[in-house]
Amino acid sequence: MRVTFTVNGREETAEDVWEGESLLYVLRERLGLPGSKNACEQGECGSCTVYLDDAPVCACLVAAGQVQGRRVRTVEGLAERGLDPVQEAFVESGAVQCGFCTPGLIVQAHDLLERVERPSDAEIREALAGNLCRCTGYEKILDAVRLAAERKAAAR
After folding, report:
1. What percent of the chain has pLDDT over 70?
2. Threshold 0.85, pTM exceeds
């Protein structure tokens, strides 16, 4: 099947898509967007989180055919005009270690900060609850989200 959808503001078409193929596979292997990571393939780790029509989803759980005519925004799409404040904060706070979980965490944190200007620690933890990290112990990730929230609020 052919799937045409908008990715990071550009219309893309994937040809000969198998009916069971995931959005994650299409993004990484067919469109060359390796930011979303393939870790669990069960929607348990959050490493493949992307926006689908402005809502965060695990790309490994979305069948490629479901995105026909829809909009997808990946972690790469957040950096179209330079690094997004969330991406900058992750780097500056040392919240990036092995980097495998980072794209999903950044997309989830970005979504939170689009909805809540100054989230509490409990709100940050709740928003990131579906994203697993085995390197940082989460404190640096929380620091990064707090820093990004401060910067985004100051810029408004």
Report:
1. 100
2. yes
